[in-house]
Predict the 3D structure of the following.
Amino acid sequence: MKSTRYGIIIVCLVSLVLVGCGQSSQDRSDNNPSTENTIATRQALYVTHCAACHGAEGKGQFPDDPYGLDANDLVGAPPHDATGHTWHHPDAALVQIIQNGRSQPGVYPMPAFGDKLTQGEILAILDYLKTWWTPEQVVAQATASAQYTPSVP
Ligand code: HEC
């Protein structure tokens, strides 16, 4: 009886250690040792660099009509939340858009952040955007990311 109880305790301890390890391996702060990828850092980076155009809650530049034309006949910065299109792109494609920016007719330009943000900071911002997605969107995008670039975590 006593040994069964010890066995259960050991199983619990081992599970705790495994759960702890799992969480720390998901934390990608090692991509950029100077910036800790914490929830506070992710939000601060987003607010500093992205929120002015994409909105504090990721609802886009013109939340009432995110894909409509404004007075200049241009579409504004799109939403990044669950109503947006961002989650359709794998991580590697999102990192590229953010590093290089994007400019196309009929849409306001997306500035390039390649010289302002490290890859670790961009991944931290993506982690923040993902908090706005549904669990299904998170899984679908993670699957696409894994298939697109198997070597990138
Ligand atoms: C000056 C305004 C502005 C700022 C600041 C800005 N963006 Fe954008 N962003 C845009 C616009 C406008 C587009 C649409 C460009 C296009 O589709 O050609 C866009 C598009 C994007 C897209 C593509 C979305 C999709 O579904 O295809 C991503 C991802 C993105 N931005 C992320 C970011 C992140 C992350 C930041 C902060 C580091 C940021 N943007 C800062 C204006 C901005």
Notes: Confidence is low (pLDDT under 50) at residues 8-30. The domain at 32-148 is CATH 1.10.760.10 (Cytochrome Bc1 Complex; Chain D, domain 2).
